Amino acid sequence: MYVSRLLLESLRSPRPRSCKQGIAASPQVSLRYFIHTFGCQMNAHDSERMAEVLRTHGATQASTLEDADLIVFNTCSVREKAEQKLRSEVGKLLPLKRARPDLVIAIAGCVAQQEGERLLKSIRHVDLVIGPDNLAELPALVVAHQAGAPPAVRTVFDLDNPEFLQAAPEPGTVPASVLVTTMKGCDERCSFCIVPTTRGPERYRPSSAIVDEIAQWVAAGALEVTLLGQTVDSYRDPCLAPPSSDDPDETQFPTLLRLIASKVPGLARLRYTSPHPRHATESLARTHGDLDVLAHHVHLPVQSGSDRVLRRMIRRYTRQEYIERTTRLRRFRPGLTLSTDIIVGFAGETDQDFAETLSLIAEIGFTSLFAFKYSPRPGTPALRLGDDVPEAVKSERLARLFELSEAQQRAHLQSLVGTTQTVLIEGPSKSGNMVQGRTQRNEIVHIGEARHLAHLAHGLVEVRIERANKHSLVAYSVANSETKPHRFLPLLQERQS
Ligand code: 5AD
């Protein structure tokens, strides 16, 4: 195991070690933009940075798609369905483009990177195709296009001088919970996954820039930060010496977490997503035990509970190793909740393999999970394994899996009724007179009588859980508490005093 890991390490692409930051200057644009985001949190984060770049260059946000002069689709290609959805959404824009030929339509993100020039050929009303590493070039490309340049494709990875668009928090508009990127790309070679193709090799952001951005968010009012990376726990600081070579299992992710905790004491909660189980080291588990700021929850994608399938997926851990790593996390942080990602119907998955996935879900006691039917992706190693699990079997397995995970989630939420929980309020609930937030362990809580909480747009509150819904908890404000008065802890006030 040790030798093979070293060998794999040596086969990895050399790690770029640039500490450089900054955005190239580009011209002013005077237009209204509309960004439609598909897919993961990384895409949501990219869309926000793209919007900031556009605003910096003079653009303003359009309230609807029809009002926009520039429409950007920030795309996802992790499964075929997401790609199909994009094509259908862009297709719907054809009448608008015919009516307003000066409308600029751009496709950004993973499908752009994957398809490049082919997108321009297959969807004739698209003007710009722009990969995840070229987002800062969007204003210049738009200006050139408006000046008569032909449709353009920019899908070049910034391998030598990786650029991380720095967020520009505006006090008063900052949400309670924000995303901060720590790295981009992926050096894993999971056989099902297209991300190494669409996002390129791993490149890391200097820890000083990460800490700086978090401090800015917190100063502007954010309470919670989620660190973002494709394999967030493989982080290495490009400005530091690499970790000791006699400890190939070690990364500098725990060091980053400790640095953030010590340099930004006003931060209320720190989360990260998504770690790879391979890098969930002892040092990371210790960090969970030591840092109060770290949420008591980890989303740790396992993908399958069968060793045979894990091998075919090239996940580089066994079922037993996964169990040991999660047990260790919980040893250092008792009560830590775990969620995960599962793929059902991967090439060659038998009934027995799937039964092992179900038994792992029960054994770990995941409190929530995301599950997907296997979707073969272009250029991935798993293509040569075929796609032999019939669609009906995939659907049936997915349904059985959700049945189990929902039962586990229900039982978990029910066990919290009557307890007191500290909730970080994120904003109003979708329906009714409630606000919504999350506990340390990531349970969603709806808090009633929101008018009592109106002043707490950003805050931590302690509430008594009154009941459990299917996927969330419900609590009421002070007036309804019979057992213990609720203590409101508006962190902003605390920090100011
Ligand atoms: N098919 C189905 N699901 C996939 N995922 C990644 N690639 C595929 C694929 N080809 C899932 C994994 C991953 C999540 C983000 O998407 O579970 O963790």
Task: Characterise this structure.
The protein has 497 residues and is an alpha/beta fold. It has three domains: 5-154, Rossmann fold (3-Layer(aba) Sandwich); 177-415, pyruvate-formate lyase- activating enzyme (Alpha-Beta Horseshoe); 420-496, OB fold (Dihydrolipoamide Acetyltransferase, E2P) (Beta Barrel), CATH 2.40.50.140. It has 16 helices and 20 strands. It has a six-stranded parallel sheet, with helices on both faces. The longest helix is centred in the last third of the chain and has 24 residues, at 391-414. 5'-deoxyadenosine binds at residues 78-79, 192-193, 301, 303, 341, 343, 372, 374-375, 377.
Tell me briefly what this model is.
With 497 residues, the protein is of the alpha/beta class. 34% of the residues lie in helices and 19% in strands.
Key features of this structure:
single chain, 497 residues, alpha/beta, Rossmann fold, pyruvate-formate lyase- activating enzyme, OB fold (Dihydrolipoamide Acetyltransferase, E2P), 6-stranded parallel β-sheet, 5-stranded mixed barrel, 34% helix, disordered N terminus, disordered C terminus, binds 5'-deoxyadenosine
